């Protein structure tokens, strides 16, 4: 592969549907521009292990519809250490790449930022996380598919809940970000949503359920954002049962939300952002992220996208309360 006419690409952190679409776009956009591509297996850990292969057009054939990432991903605690970042930067310079494309979330973006800040490596980051929690962009690759997967599952749970006249707590992913939780709560007609990182008033949740039962509702769905601490859903279930007398069942959707065929929107996001990242490095930009702002695709300085965005429009909670009456 030619020196200074090549780039490297990796996926880091949790996988998300649409990453393969982004990889396909990176490889094919680079090929059209006369740029070779190295694929780094297993994220930053792959850089440390020198697990890198050339990618060509055939490498990305028939992958746009597949979930996950065909070059794999991982979380690399070693990469948090300066000495290991130095080794990774040295290897990239040895390969002679003009820059690195990173597809991932907040931690992945910060790793790329350090590579650029400490060693001058040009980087272009693509937001890929189902949590939709990266500052500076309205949407991330994987969020749309994850919410659709959760909605489909909850619709099925509602059938069982109605048949048995029960209340179900359904725990969805998202960590400290509540984007998935509030979105699926509204779109599944849930009676309430619980955010562990906010003040939780289970008496209000119980009231919402009993109010619905009083007017003839045969089932209730309560969405629980998973939060940072494992097992919160079980705790809420116990309190609702023992304190408020609600016959509740708990369903944790878990990693099913990460997999599956990406939605058309996530394929579209990945395709556009992959091309943008290649073009940015080709034009000599050194530390950028592909983002969506006010509905438009654009490039932003990477430093604007390093923090987690855990908040969302508070009016959505008010909307849920209105629709759940």
Mean pLDDT: 94
CATH topology-level fold name of the largest domain: Rossmann fold
Number of domains: 2
Mind describing the biggest β-sheet? 7 strands, mixed
Topology:
Layout: E1 6-11, H1 19-32, E2 36-40, H2 43-49, E3 52-55, H3 82-95, E4 100-104, H4 106-119, E5 123-127, H5 143-164, E6 167-172, H6 179-187, E7 192-194, H7 202-214, E8 220-225, H8 232-242, E9 248-252, H9 264-282, E10 287-293, E11 296-301, H10 315-323
Parallel strand pairs: 1-2, 1-4, 4-5, 5-10, 6-8, 6-9, 7-8
Antiparallel strand pairs: 2-3, 10-11
Structure, described:
The radius of gyration is 22 Å and the shape is elongated. The chain has 325 residues and is α/β, with parallel strands linked by helices. A 7-stranded mixed beta sheet has the order 3-2-1-4-5-10-11, with helices on both faces. A 4-stranded parallel beta sheet has the order 7-8-6-9, sandwiched between helices. The longest helix has 22 residues. It folds into 2 domains: 181 residues, Rossmann fold (3-Layer(aba) Sandwich); 115 residues, Phosphofructokinase domain (Rossmann fold), CATH 3.40.50.
